[in-house]
């Protein structure tokens, strides 16, 4: 698999290093005016030369045809896909976007391109494995304790632009759908220091409460999630979310459990 990455900021740099170590990175893009342009990626990451020259994200179609990546992972800003979804669809490059803060109309545009433009897109504000497990747990609690008060609380570093986080909005929405009264779930944000990412669901009744929380204490968690998403979307078309990956994994695991049960059962019958 060949992966292109756009965005070499706080998160993108860690993702670049992770993908480089996995030997799947073949193209890295930065802003046209960036001082990182035309440098070897190793210089940006403070390691030995990688042989990958950082390119600018303009004239993207030509660059995608030259490098032929299977998937582009986006850790830049919502502007990138807004301006470039055309070029990605034309060159048949699938997309994993971890970017947050899209307007609803932008999400619809991206969804349309994925559904009609013959490419695969995963939109993943919630890229880590752990936070997706938190979501599943929160959905179960919402189904069982609809009469409790639900709040989503998140904490991130002081440079984060959007609030509440894309993940917090997604968690709140998933809970709302499961609640009997379909009521909006409030989400509160703290921006302070260097916090990498914390999400908590507070479920509070008159006499007791449940808290479900997840914390990323390394951005490698985002890199792992993005790589998993890139593997999933390779060769697919259409619009997906991280839950689709977990659903596929659950079904595969279920099949394995059934197969090993059948095997064990057959052995027992043989012995009898
Ligand atoms: N889904 C998830 O779990 C995660 C999502 N994110 C999201 O990823 C995005 C980036 O986060 P950070 O790395 O903290 O931000 P950052 O501001 O440190 O880095 C963004 C980088 O993208 C570059 N960039 C912006 N627009 C560009 C364009 N059109 N073409 C090329 N490069 C462009 C900027 O120059 C900058 O270097 C945010 O939307 C953030 O919410 C970040 C971490 C995890
Ligand atoms: O900007 C970040 O850093 C993060 N953004 C994501 C979001 O908005 O949900 C999630 C992650 O915890 C880090």
TrEMBL record:
It holds the Pfam family DapB_N. Keywords: Amino-acid biosynthesis, Cytoplasm, Diaminopimelate biosynthesis, Lysine biosynthesis, NAD, NADP, Oxidoreductase. One of its GO terms (cellular component) is cytosol. NCBIfam families: dapB. Catalyzes the conversion of 4-hydroxy-tetrahydrodipicolinate (HTPA) to tetrahydrodipicolinate. Gene3D superfamilies: Dihydrodipicolinate Reductase, domain 2, NAD(P)-binding Rossmann-like Domain. Its EC number is 1.17.1.8. Pathway: Amino-acid biosynthesis; L-lysine biosynthesis via DAP pathway; (S)-tetrahydrodipicolinate from L-aspartate: step 4/4. (S)-2,3,4,5-tetrahydrodipicolinate binds at residues 157, 166-167. It catalyses: (S)-2,3,4,5-tetrahydrodipicolinate + NAD(+) + H2O = (2S,4S)-4-hydroxy-2,3,4,5-tetrahydrodipicolinate + NADH + H(+); (S)-2,3,4,5-tetrahydrodipicolinate + NADP(+) + H2O = (2S,4S)-4-hydroxy-2,3,4,5-tetrahydrodipicolinate + NADPH + H(+). This is 4-hydroxy-tetrahydrodipicolinate reductase. PROSITE patterns: DAPB. The active site is at 156 (proton donor/acceptor), 160 (proton donor). It comes from the Bacteria. It is an enzyme of class 1 (oxidoreductase). Its main location: cytoplasm. The keyword Cytoplasm applies. The keyword RNA-binding does not apply. GO terms for molecular function: 4-hydroxy-tetrahydrodipicolinate reductase; NAD binding; NADP binding; oxidoreductase activity, acting on CH or CH2 groups, NAD or NADP as acceptor. Belongs to the DapB family. Homotetramer. Residues 130-245 form the Dihydrodipicolinate reductase C-terminal domain. It is found in: Cytoplasm. It comes from Lucifera butyrica. Signal peptide: none annotated.
